[in-house]
Automatic annotation (TrEMBL):
Gene Ontology biological-process annotations: DNA repair; protein ubiquitination; ribosome biogenesis; ubiquitin-dependent protein catabolic process
Gene3D superfamilies recorded: Cullin Repeats, Cullin, Chain C, Domain 2, Winged helix-like DNA-binding domain superfamily/Winged helix DNA-binding domain
Keywords: Cell cycle, Cytoplasm, DNA damage, DNA repair, Isopeptide bond, Nucleus, Phosphoprotein, Ubl conjugation, Ubl conjugation pathway
Annotated protein name in UniProt: Cullin-4B
Keyword flag Cell cycle: yes
Organism in which the protein naturally occurs: Littorina saxatilis
Residue intervals of the Cullin family profile domain: 444-674
An example molecular function term from Gene Ontology annotations: ubiquitin protein ligase binding
Database matches in Pfam families: Cullin, Cullin_AB, Cullin_Nedd8
Keyword Nucleus: yes
Length: 801
């Protein structure tokens, strides 16, 4: 083959500067390679043949390249590629023969028989058909073969001889077989699936085509779909009734419906309707048959069962509507009935587990916790009202009221913490309910709380350690916060504190100061300023008594009587009515000595003795047994007992004349000495009450196991009188506060209508007050010319500057 001009140029460039011998050798070697080339082709491997075939199908390779191309060892070889003169031809019946082979394999798979050909051979056949642009026909033929097989399977489901479970098993087997067949078929036709099908958007993949055929020709058949769904619902209904069913069968078939994308349309809607009917009837029936704890346990059980179904075989998309349906039919429809029927019982019996379950279940439904919180608040109000309100004025009930309130509060705190997870709504509901019922009985709760504190802070109270007492005071302060009339508490607390301080009955100074600190933190310094002043008076009195004793030693005026005096600032302490009694001359002398001493140090002050607060320790000797005792008694008891140093018997009138004690006070005093547990005196005639004609003798045969004996004063009538006076004092103080509030408001507003003034007063006053009382105070201020009515409108007031 003659060289072209281009080849000549290449040759001349490649051989430039090379010896001629080299060129000659290159031509010889090239010629030899040409002769050896057929032998090389015969020994090629299979992949090389495919490569050569592919190359030859496009262009031919010239074997007559320039012999000078390889003149230089290692130089690049140049190949010239030319077209074949004729294209390779495929056999005329290639498509038909190949499809017959593939159709036979597909049929064998569908019949579950052995395939004559290897999978590699079948795969290669599909690839060859796709390479020769037969993919569209191949897809249609495959689709027709699969459709024919699926249609043939339909007939087995149209008979009426099967029960629900047999039908479902047959459907499950058919579906699983279909899935296995389509997986095998797709593996053979994978090249078709990944080329032609992938590039053609208008047709389905082989797997989706199989699903579509099954859905169209089997499961979407009206009879088959109905029997399948009915069978599934029947199995689930039996399981809900307590039977053991084949959950794997349910799982397979529901997975089938999901894969076929008809789960919601064919099954879920009917399933939810059946669920609603079941639980609606069940809820109505069980609410009548069972009590609330059993019903709540049943609802919890049903919810757990439905969650298990979701876990084992139902599709996850069903979870929200299914659980909502159960909650609505078993809970939401019966909220009011559950609360009305069982909440009071659960709270009364402190059923922690049941209340916890109720809270958990009610939190699942709309307005559940709101309804529960409202019912909880109503329960607290009703129960608390029974504790506080005492229409019959039963003294025993009032005695236990504060302790019952504390126990009730502890119980509710525990329920809120454990059962209601410290929900702020329930905490606030409890506070509002306590504030509501505890103030329905004015003044009395405040009084009783003050007395309860007194009983816990009084000496001799060994019920609790200091730590326990501190916790108890904190709980009492919680009740104290709910009280509107805190001034009533202050009045009674001050009266009781005065007794504890003056008679030395305080259990602990630290506990007293701790309580004072709590009150100050709660109500401010103005509330506790007088109480703090009482403590200061007691501390100053100790210094004064110590100085007085040193003064007595300086005067060398030692007395048989050891005098201790408490100097009380009148503004800090409760108001005590003046009382005159006839004291022994020794006591009168000591009073004068102390008065002279005190006024010498503090000129311009006035001392007023309060015998009702005095107490003494008497040394007594009972001659019959030669026994000596110490009697811890009040000053009034002391005056009565000292008379018996002169005579052995006195009449009531004689004692009254000798002591000067007021009649009712004297009767209580003699009653404590002659009718109590420690009877130092004998009364004739015997009886509990002291009459005008009674006679009293000294009990010379008195015996007692203790050396120092405390003889308490009879307190019943005294307490009633004290209560009345304390309440009246509080009322007067409130009048002054109301007057001050009215003047303060009018001074700021200048002009106000009656209704607006009343509204402002309710916002400012911290204690309960009636509109009629406010009207009286307004009239009083008008009379005293602090304000005046409008001339044209009597309901309008003007401030008078």
């Amino acid at each position: 083959m003659p060289l072209s001009s281009a080849n000549k140029r290449a040759l001349s460039e490649e051989n430039k500067g090379e010896p001629a011998l080299t060129s000659k050798r290159s031509r010889t070697e090239s010629k030899n390679r040409e002769l050896d080339e057929p032998e090389s082709c015969a020994t090629m491997t299979e992949p090389q043949k495919k490569a050569n075939f592919s190359a030859l199908s496009g262009n031919g390779i010239s074997r007559h390249a320039s012999p000078l191309a390889n003149a230089k060892p290692g130089a690049a070889k140049k190949l010239v590629i030319k077209n074949f003169k004729e294209k390779p031809q495929i056999p005329e019946n290639f498509e038909e023969q190949t499809w017959l082979k593939l159709a036979e394999a597909v049929g064998a798979i569908q019949r579950s028989c052995a395939i004559r050909y290897s999978l590699e051979e079948l795969y290669q056949a599909v690839e060859n058909m796709c390479s020769y642009k037969m993919a569209a026909g191949l897809y249609q033929q495959l689709q027709s073969a699969c459709m024919k097989h699926v249609r043939a399977n339909l007939q087995q489901f149209l008979g009426d001889t099967y029960d629900h479970e047999q039908f479902l098993k047959m459907m499950s087997n058919c579906w699983q077989a279909h899935c296995r067949q389509m997986i095998m078929i797709r593996s053979i036709f994978l090249f078709l699936d990944r080329t032609y099908v992938l590039q053609t958007s208008s047709i389905l993949s082989i797997w989706d085509m199989g699903l579509d055929l099954f859905r169209t020709h089997i499961i979407s058949h009206r009879t088959v779909e109905a029997r399948t769904v009915d069978g599934l619902l029947n199995l689930i209904e039996r399981e809900r009734a307590g039977e053991t069913v084949n959950r794997q069968l349910l799982k397979n078939l529901l997975r089938m419906l999901t894969d076929l994308q008809i789960y919601q349309e064919a099954f879920e809607k009917k399933f939810l309707e059946a669920t609603e009917r079941l639980y609606s009837a069940e809820g109505q029936r069980l609410m009548q048959e069972r009590d609330v704890p059993e019903y709540l346990a049943h609802v919890d059980k049903r919810l757990n069962e439905e969650n298990e179904r979701l876990l084992h075989y139902l599709d996850s998309s069903t979870k929200k509507p299914l659980i909502s349906c159960v909650e609505k039919q078993l809970l939401e429809q019966h909220l009011a009935q559950i609360l009305q029927k069982g909440l009071t019982q659960l709270l009364d019996e402190n059923r922690i587990a049941d209340l916890t379950l109720m809270n958990q279940l009610f939190s699942r439904v709309k307005d559940g916790l709101k309804e529960l919180c409202t019912a909880f608040s109503s329960y607290i109000k009703n129960t608390g009202r029974l504790i506080v309100v005492n229409p019959s004025n039963d003294a025993e009930k009032d005695k236990d009221m504060v302790q019952n309130l504390l126990d009730f509060k502890d119980k509710l705190d525990n329920i809120i913490e454990v059962c209601f997870a410290q929900n702020p709504k329930f905490v606030n509901a409890m506070k509002e309910a306590f504030e509501n019922f505890i103030n329905q009985r004015q003044n009395k709760p405040a009084e009783l709380i003050a007395k309860y504190v007194d009983s816990k802070l009084r000496a001799g109270n060994k019920e609790a350690t200091e730590e326990e007492l501190e916790k108890l005071l904190d709980k009492i302060m919680v009740l104290f916060r709910f009280i509107h009339g805190k001034d009533v508490f202050e009045a009674f607390y001050k009266k009781d504190l005065a007794k504890r301080l003056l008679v030395g009955k305080s259990a602990s100074v630290d506990a007293e100061k701790s309580m004072l600190s709590k009150l100050k933190q709660e109500c401010g310094g103005g509330f506790t300023s007088k109480l703090e002043g009482m403590f200061k008076d007691m501390e100053l009195s100790k210094d004064i008594v110590l100085a007085f004793k040193q003064h007595q030693q300086y005067l060398d005026a030692s007395q048989a009587i050891d005098l201790t005096v408490n100097i009380l600032t009148m503004g800090y302490w409760p108001t005590y009515p003046p009382c005159e009694v006839l004291l022994p001359s020794e006591m009168v002398y000591l009073q004068e000595v102390f008065k002279k001493f005190y006024l010498g140090k503090h000129s311009g002050r006035k001392l007023q003795w309060q015998p009702t607060l005095g107490h003494c320790v008497l040394k007594a000797e009972f001659n019959s047994f030669g026994v000596r005792k110490e009697l811890q008694v009040s000053l009034f008891q002391t005056l009565c007992l000292l008379l018996f140093n002169e005579n052995n018997e006195y009449t009531y009138q004689e004692i009254k004349t000798a002591t000067g004690i007021e009649d009712s006070e004297l009767r209580r005093t003699l009653q404590s000495l002659a009718c109590g547990k420690a009877r130092v005196l004998h009364k004739t005639p015997k009886g509990k009450d002291v009459e005008d004609g009674d006679k009293f003798q000294f009990n010379d045969e008195f015996k007692h196991k203790l050396y120092r004996i405390k003889i308490n004063q009879i307190q019943m009538k005294e307490t009633q009188e004290e209560n009345t006076s304390t309440t009246e004092r509080v009322f007067h103080d409130r009048q002054y506060q109301v007057d001050a509030a009215i003047v303060r408001i009018m001074k700021m507003r200048k002009t106000l209508t009656h209704n607006l003034l009343i509204s402002e007063l309710y916002n400012q006053l911290k204690f309960p007050v009636k509109p009629a009382d406010l009207k009286k105070r307004i009239e009083s201020l008008i009379d005293r010319e602090y304000m005046e009515r409008d001339k044209d409108n009597p309901n309008t007031y003007h401030y008078v500057a």
